[in-house]
Design goal:
This protein is mainly α. The chain has five helices and no strands.
Length: about 80
């Protein structure tokens, strides 16, 4: 009986979470993430991470923002996760 109640609460919580997420944004982020993963190629952005300007920024002691204009930042960020 407790397991049934626990499953019911879990199911309701999951459903409520999905409703809130859909209310916040109707975009399907799993589809977006899948599309980004498909664009990734091994070695993507390695040239940037190995460059002197990037290394100076990365290991610098100043509070600064690295500005990377253009498309592909989501794909580039995968290099840090894979």
């Amino acid at each position: 009986m407790i397991d049934d109640k626990t499953r019911q609460i879990s199911s309701e919580t999951s459903r409520e979470r999905e409703e809130i997420l859909t209310w916040l944004s109707p975009l399907n982020y799993l589809d977006k993430q899948d599309a980004i993963f498909k664009k990734y190629h091994p070695g993507t952005v390695r040239w940037l991470m190995g460059s002197e300007p990037f290394q100076k920024w990365l290991h610098g002691h100043q509070n600064s923002t690295l500005w990377c204009p253009g498309d592909g930042k989501s794909t580039q960020s995968l290099a840090h996760m894979l």
